[in-house]
């Protein structure tokens, strides 16, 4: 073969080899990592709860007085409120424990007594209070004292937790939520032939104390009658977490 032809063949061979070498390098660089190399994540939610007896109670009571004019309605209201507060003070309750939540004096239109007559206008004065107790066993006695000394209605009774007790239950609820999340993640990992290697991210949602609410129909308690007996069940604190776990192939 002539020397020029051999040189041409050599050039073509070098070009072909260069093309093969580039394709192999590119395929190695562009290949995605395997699942075991890249790692996996498992995201689950966990829910936990803790229960405890309430050590705080809130009683909401109201005093209502009516009259044909606003001045008289206000005076009657003030007298009843003063009598109620004095009675509660006699039980040892401080002003900080008996606080105003609502106050209003307004017109109260009544249907006319006969057809065609003008509506009867009466003034209605309202003063609502929130009574906070650290001794939940005194709720019944406080209700009886308030109703027997001027309170005309008891809106509701809530049993809940003081701040320190709530923190204790929140801690227990979060631990329970994390244990629940871990159990779920391990179940998923086993089914997917993975092994959990650690925690990647934890998101804690707001803890949710669930107070026990009771309604009480206000009725005066004559002397000698049995007083009110108001009992509560446990208060539940619920915590929710979102956890992302790192995992690798088993």
TrEMBL record:
Disordered: annotated span: 27-53
Biased composition (Low complexity): 27-40
Xref: PANTHER family: SLR1258 PROTEIN (PTHR34387)
Highest taxon, organism lineage: Archaea
Lineage: Archaea, Methanobacteriati, Methanobacteriota, Stenosarchaea group, Halobacteria
Species this protein is from: Halobellus rubicundus
Name listed for the protein in its UniProt record: SIMPL domain-containing protein
